[in-house]
Structures are given as structure tokens and as C-alpha cells.
Amino acid sequence: MDHRENASVSLNRRTARYAVWLVPQFSLQAVTRQQAAAGMPMVLAEDVRGKSTVVDANREAQELSIRPGIPTVQALARCSYLQILQAHAVAEAELTQILLELAWTWVPRVELTRDGVLTLDLSTLSDVFFEKLQPECLRLWEALQVKGITCHMGIGRTPDLAQTAALLAAHQAVPMCSPAVDPQHYQQQLQAAPLGLCGLSDALHSDLQDWGIYTVGQYTAIAYQEIAERLGEEGCRLWLQLSGRTDRPLKNEKEAPEFRCRRDLDYEVTDREALLHEVSRAAVQILPKLQASGKSCPEVKLLMGLADGTAQWEEMPLAESSAAEGPIMEAVEHLVNKLRPRCGVEWFEVELSAIEPTSKQEVLLGDSVGNEFRFRETIERLKDLLGEKACYLPSQAFADYRSAFHRQQPDYQRVRQVISLESIETSPERVHGSSCLFRPFPMPVSARVAWQQGQPRRLSCQSPFFAARVAADQEKKSWRVLDSRGPWKESSHWWEPEQARSSDEWDILVDEAGWMRLSGDGERWVIEGTYN
Known about the structure:
The protein has 532 residues and is an alpha+beta fold. The chain has helices at residues 26-32, 59-62, 72-78, 89-104, 127-131, 133-146, 159-172, 183-191, 202-210, 216-220, 224-242, 272-292, 325-339, 359-365, 372-386, 396-408, 412-417, 422-425, 464-470; strands at residues 18-22, 42-48, 51-57, 83-85, 110-114, 117-121, 152-156, 176-177, 260-269, 297-306, 311-322, 345-352, 438-452, 455-460, 478-492, 501-510, 514-520, 525-531. It has a six-stranded antiparallel β-barrel with strand order 13-14-15-16-17-18. The chain has a five-stranded mixed β-sheet with strand order 5-6-1-7-8. A hairpin with a 4-residue loop joins β17 and β18 (525-531). The protein is extended, with a radius of gyration of 30 Å. The two termini are 53 Å apart.
């Protein structure tokens, strides 16, 4: 039966409270998913009592009678072209992060149960997305397959039942096991699942086999009192899990936005200028994501992997926390000059640390940062102590952070509809669909705007500076507006009622001039700068 058959049938919330994503052979997949030689026999080996031993093997290797536990020399005797790999903590962390970020596009509560196993709380799903959960799971499975990752999914009433369903899906080599298609068939599948999938000890497994008990259904059919008398604590715990009598709160993984970029270079880079160029490109790629989050960067970190197998690490704190391109790129250049790699660089990773813009003020102002009246009192006391000119007041930058966040926050509905690894591995889109940088004019330029159906359609400006800046024909005074985005509401200086203002901001595409920022209160409009 095709795994897409009846995929549109909605799930029952009573029987589908949790979902488990299971990546079998997690350590091996983390290393092999980026290997170019697909279809080659590969094994994971490590030293066991001073002897190299196979600890895991992919399907191609197992078809050649290479099993975990045999010496690596014996595995090579069975296959001369066998690829022997070592576990890699960085690769495992990358795979875990990919799975977590995909899970967070579905639900906010995700537990990293163990390596390669994620448990999702489905109670927060909307009715619309909940009804589409089955096809979304299949779409995710296909996207992961393209990336060389095999992930099986199980859905159940408790976390333990969902995990059993995921183990059964892995055992049957199917994408998922859920009650969506046929709840009765789903229960029959769980009841027929082999007990060996459930992680019980060898001693307990052996005793149950001697008694002729091989499946979950046979085990749960035994009375709980008999289990307690004959099998003790482990047997009771297993019986409660498999019968769906246990439920537990998930240990929620906190979603921490990461502003980092890793690059695997095509060849070893030894020239400092070439290396600086590559690192700067990576920093520019993640800088818009940092600016869109409304956070600022206190330090820049750089990790380099060298050709001799070693790595170098350095971090550079900024003089003042900032999200501007200038200070961050200066820190990147300083790091490249400071590290001075002793041999060729094969890969590097650049990371921008992130803090909230107001975190440095909290030490001084405390909880008054979030209280308008207490904040105003604190500012007045600072003026008395330090003088009005020496007292720092929030500037338009805070409003810019806020408006930038509202303009550039991701479309979560679109992310849920198109679940793919590409949407995670690329940097988020800016206002106009590609990475861009806003460059303000030294002084805003006054302009007149002609409107049609609530949208700007033509722009007139008498400023020579504006004409010289945006047009080849400096005599031109009027331009067409080809496209527009907005408006976004802007408010600032709430702590000074006399200076408080509100305005609308538009991003407009002006003929011959490109994208610009238009701001005004409905009567007076100004051009604040351009995007490039």
C-alpha cells in the first residue's frame, strides 16, 4: 500500500497528542550524510579495549555480512573498498540542530529525548495544521531523504507510545506509524510490535522468550499484579509504558537563535586576503538575520579547521555592542589577522553573539526599562546627577530595531507549508526578497507623494541632492513608484509626551533609483535613505 494513501484523513487529538522523530544509526548518519560516495559500504569504528572494532554499519555494509562488534580488520577482509569512519561530535551537533529547527517550525515544545530522538508536544497545533499533519510528516520525510537523512516518525497518545510507534516504523522501514489512516490497524500494529524494539535488558528479554512472549500485545495482556510479582521494577515500568498508562511532561529545549555560518572550502586557502574575503562574505550573509532579530552583537567568534587536522579558535569583543556592519567587519578582519593559520584552511565557522539591545541598561535601570513612569523618573535623576548632556537617552535606533523586526519577521505560515532544509540553511529574506542594506541620507529629503487606492504611485522632489544621488538626469524632478511595501507603524519618544510622534513607513521602488524608505505622518513625507 502506498504510504500516501488516505494521507488527508485528519488525526484524532485523543490518540495523537505526541510525535516522536527517530533517526536510526544517528552517529553513523551524522557522518555519512555529507559523503559524496552514496551507495558505498561504510562503517563506524572505534577503539574497544585497544582494538579497532565496528560499532555501526550502513545497509550496504550489512549486506556484505559486516556487523557491529566484529574487528575492523575482519570487516576489511570481507570488503576491500570499505570506508571506515570515526564518530564526529560536530557533525552530530549539526544534525541535531537541523532536526530541532525543523521541529520548532511545527510546535514550540520539543524535547531532545536522546541523540537522534525528538519528542514533540502536538497540543499547541492549530486545527488547520493538525489536520495536515500526516502529509506534512511525509513531506518532511522526503525532504530529509534528499539530504541523505533517514528519519522515522511515530504518533501516539503518550510520549512512550509515540516512541514505540517510531521504533516500529524504523523496524518496518516505513516513513511513519500513526493512527491517521486506520486507528484500528494502528493498534494492531503496536500490539504486534516485537518486544526487542523496546530497549529491555538482555536478562528480561531472555526470560520473556523462554515464556513464549514475543510481542507487545502478548506482554500487555498479562495482569499487572503478575508482572510485579515475577519481573520486578523493570517489568512493571515496561508494562506501564507499553500499555499507555504513563504520561510525563517534556523537558522543553529552548529555541536559541544562532547567528553563525560554516563554510567548507573547495581547496586549502593559505592567502590571507583570500581567507579574509571568504570570512567577510560569511559574516555579511548572517548579519541581516541578526539585524532582523532586533538584537545587537557584543563579540565575534571565528573557528578555523586546518589541513593538518587541528583547529584554531579566537573571539573578538566589540568596543560597544552593535548590529552595524562597520564594527562587525572590523572585528572579522582583526580575527583573521590575529589567528595567522600555520597551514592551509579547509573550513571555517564565523559566529555573531547576540544580546538584547537593552541588556546593558538593565544593570543601571533595573526593571524600570519596561515601565514608562519609573523609566522617566530614573532619567530625571540621572540628569540631576550627571547633567543633561552627559545623560544617555534612548534614540531613534530603538524604534528602528522595533520597526525592522516587524518588517522582517518570518512568515511562519509559509514556513510550515513548505518544510525543507533549504529554508533553514539559507539566511532569512529581507524586505524585498534578497539580502539588502539600508543606507540613510545625511538629512531626510522632503518629497511630495501622489497616491492611488491607498498606494504611493508617483514621487516628486525638488532637492538637488536627491536628484544627484539617485538619477543620471539631475534636472528630473518626478519619478514613478513601480512597487511598494507597507505601511509599518512607527512611534518613538513615548517617554517625552511633548516630543512623541507616530508615522507610517513605506519601502518603495522608484523608477531609475531603486528601493527607498519613505516616512511621513500623512501630510509631510520624507525620503530617509536607500537600499542596496
